[in-house]
């Protein structure tokens, strides 16, 4: 924890430098109040008592703080410092950068709190041991499927059954996996497939006998305790679905190392933070568990989006279910090693995300319904996938204009301060995760460069979906080449 404390101290020092170097008295007051709020949540998280499981303080106010605080900060900042063109420029920059900063800074205490909570849970005996059905959809996965099936069979959890669904592969996938056929392993083949994973998952569910269903991708290798730790979360009857901790196993170049940091940050900040509220919005198809009854109520997987895992999680949350994440349910997946492959993969992910948000836009129609899904999850997703990328685009344009007008020094100060803050936030996320296999030289590239690449893709995918909806078209599933 010492490293976390040091990084937190550096974050707070960086924050207080912003009003001292750029703003005035109102900005200083606003930032000081915000730091105090963040410190309150952080102290509460660190002081988590090992002998009890209290309700997280301030739970009702978090959505308000995450949505309103950045707006207050940026308006105060821009009002006090500049006027005219400069006020517009700094309003855009301050709004976007403060929004990013404070979302992270208020999720960090939640993530620390949940980490402490999981340490307590991990020491409790596992008394709930239902039959688990592990479903593995596969299409043209001959290079990796054996590793996946073997890792499931070597899991330390029993009772379990394994269902492999060959989705009309054109390679030797069915032949390779058929050698594992046994009373415990069912190997099924769909003669017509390749139209998306949802159909293969639903096909496998027809044969699942377990009360708990675990879904994993065909390129995913489970840790021995992964299934047991997913079930441990479901030992709490209020929890209906659990997201696993998916990590990158092929860290072979700069691109895959950046993706490794992204996976760590996504899980250990957003998923762990939102787990405190039982509102994890996405259970990755690479590793996740559902009570089968929840899937039946949700109508199983729909085939009308590119991201069926996001869609089915939202349906579970809409029915009032608690969705959490497990840090100890670890799996290792293969990620794209080339920029072209990553580009294709993320086109599907981000297009699918906007499809799901549009599909479930009724969440915003009912002021008293859908709980944290309406008050927190969807606003956060819209901010991260649309609003912040738009603001960053406007900021880039504004920076160019300001340089042409000669406003260079104050602009550079602000950019340096917020860039440093982003790097520190990425660093503390790695520390919360207990991650040691990373290079400090890679962290700045993740915060400045890699992140902007994804924001560009998000904006492209948003307009792709809008145009496709207007023309009545849809996008096809894309597959990644395995190594």
Describe the structure.
The protein is an alpha/beta fold and 483 residues long. 58% of the residues lie in helices and 11% in strands. It has helices at 2-21, 25-46, 62-81, 85-121, 145-153, 173-178, 197-205, 226-234, 254-275, 292-298, 308-318, 339-359, 371-405, 409-432, 442-471; strands at 132-138, 160-167, 185-190, 212-216, 221-222, 239-248, 287-291, 322-333. The chain is globular, with a radius of gyration of 23 Å. Residues 49-54 have low confidence and may be disordered.
Main sheet properties: 8 strands, mixed
Helix percent band: 55-70%
**Biggest sheet: strand arrangement:** 3-2-1-4-7-6-8-5
What would the principal axes of the Cα set say about the shape?
A: globular
How many distinct helices? 15
Instruction: Provide the succession of SSEs.
Output: HHHHEHEHEHEEHEHEHHEHHHH
In what range is the share of β-strand residues? 5-15%
**Tally of DSSP β-strands:** 8
- Which spans of ≥5 residues are poorly predicted at pLDDT below 50? 49-54
C-alpha-based Rg, rounded: 23 Å
Report the end-to-end length measured between terminal Cα atoms: 37 Å
